[in-house]
Write a structure and sequence with these properties.
With 426 residues, the chain is an alpha/beta fold. It contains 19 helices and seven strands. Among the domains are: 29 residues, no CATH class; 239 residues, no CATH class. The strands form two sheets. A five-stranded mixed beta sheet has the order 5-4-3-6-7, sandwiched between helices. Strands 1-2 form a two-stranded antiparallel ribbon.
């Protein structure tokens, strides 16, 4: 005991004593055949000690004196009550101190609370990684020896809905150099299981970071009125201008873009245009088609692109007229690309940013098969988005190559990014 008191004056000595105690406990646990996790395991026992000590400390603060220092005061301890809580170390049986006038409100484990917050965070994290409620329940039972029902897991994940609503209505930047709009199809059971699109808007900020602006559910029959509502929502949240909007032939979207942001350039997604071309062709012809289309989208001018496309049509129209018709119909939204600097072309033609997001979303939604409601599907997609790039490594890679592109945007869209730049430098 004297050694512990001496150690208390020296933080390094205290750490050494603490480490020694932990090793002693671990050695004792091994000798007794005690498991590390699960009910009754070493971590559960340590968690019990820590929680109960914290509760006693809270009671001391509440009463204003220690456990054996009543000193004639009106309120006093009044025994304890047993309670089982689920922790990250497994189920733990604890005793909660009570006071005589029942005014004690513990904070570390609140009244009627049956799970510590870390467990809720774990459930939400597992859900974001694509695990179903049944898989999460099985995981908790296997790893922690805890029985958590699917309904309870759904209740826990439903708590993110308030956060999703706040995220969906948060203020946005006044201007974005580039805005990508894409969709991921999910299966929703509405009488029968059917594919329903969820649209994702991903912006590139003036700083070169990626910002997911929101999620919108559709029914597959969207038109100009639908897109007017979506874009007006983005504008009402603060975005007064967008330089380039990259999309993939969504009906009514180009008209809505022109109405909401008159100066914005609507650019068809080159990668999607290529992929859609391959849909009409035999796989063995894909390399040759890709080779013959490359001079079209790498042309130095629109006239050079027209000449290259004429050569492509001469070669392939007889066999694949649908490909020629696809490019002809998309030509108006394709040609703006040809007027841009190489650095801008790299940003708007490389869909890696949104494709990595879509890939993460697809893994999460495919794990579930289908959803009972549209809201359940949106919750799943939102959780998947919130789990993206937790280390920030992807953001660093993106911003590292942004500076040269920013100069090109400044020259091409002169003056339109200045208000935002001034805001950042002030």
């Amino acid at each position: 005991m004297a050694k512990l008191k001496e150690a208390g004056s020296d933080p390094l000595m205290t750490d050494a004593v603490d480490a020694q105690l932990v090793r002693q406990l671990a050695d004792r646990a091994r000798a007794e055949g005690l498991q590390l996790t699960g009910e009754g395991g070493l971590l559960a026992r340590l968690t019990k000690v820590v929680i109960e000590s914290a509760l006693e400390g809270e009671m001391d603060d509440h009463l204003g004196y220690g456990k054996h220092e009543r000193a004639g005061r009106s309120n006093a301890r009044n025994g304890t009550r047993a309670k089982k809580v689920l922790t990250e170390a497994g189920p733990v049986e604890i005793v909660v101190p009570r006071d005589r006038d029942a005014s004690f409100e513990p904070k570390i484990v609140k009244k009627r609370q049956r799970r510590l917050s870390g467990v809720d965070d774990l459930v939400i994290s597992l859900s974001a990684k694509g695990l179903t409620t049944g898989e999460i329940s099985a995981h908790l039972a296997e790893i922690y020896g805890a029985e958590v029902s699917r309904d309870t897991i759904s209740v826990i994940t439903d708590r993110v809905l308030d956060g999703m609503a706040d995220w969906q209505s948060r203020p946005l930047d006044s201007v974005y150099p580039v805005l990508f709009i894409d969709c991921v199809n999910v299966k929703v059971r509405d009488g029968s299981v059917a594919n329903r699109p969820i649209y994702v808007a991903l912006a590139v900020t003036v700083d070169g970071t990626r910002d997911i602006l929101g999620l919108w559910a559709g029914d597959g029959g969207e038109g100009a009125k639908y897109w007017m509502r979506v874009l007006a929502e983005i504008k009402n949240r603060g975005t007064q201008d967008v330089c380039i909007v990259v999309c993939d032939g969504l009906k009514g979207l180009p008209e809505a873009i022109t109405t909401v942001w008159p100066q914005a350039v609507t650019q068809t997604c080159i990668v999607h245009l290529l992929r859609n071309s391959f849909r009409y062709a035999s796989r063995r012809d894909w390399p040759a088609i890709a080779r013959d289309l490359k001079p079209v989208y790498t042309a130095v001018s629109e006239q050079a692109a027209l000449d290259a496309f004429a050569a492509f049509a001469e070669t392939w129209e007889a066999k694949y007229p649908a490909i020629v018709r696809l490019w002809t119909n998309a030509w108006t939204e394709f040609t703006p690309f040809l007027a841009f600097d190489t650095e801008i072309r790299k940003i708007i033609s490389t869909t890696n940013a949104i494709e990595s997001i879509n890939s993460r979303i697809r893994r999460a939604v495919n794990a579930r098969g289908h959803f009972p409601t549209e809201q359940a599907a949106l919750k799943c997609v939102y959780l998947a988005l919130m789990s993206l790039d937790p280390t920030g490594a992807g953001r660093k890679r993106w911003t590292a190559r942004w500076k040269i592109a920013l100069q090109a945007f400044e020259i091409t869209f002169e003056g339109r990014l200045v208000p935002k730049l001034l805001t950042h430098t002030s």
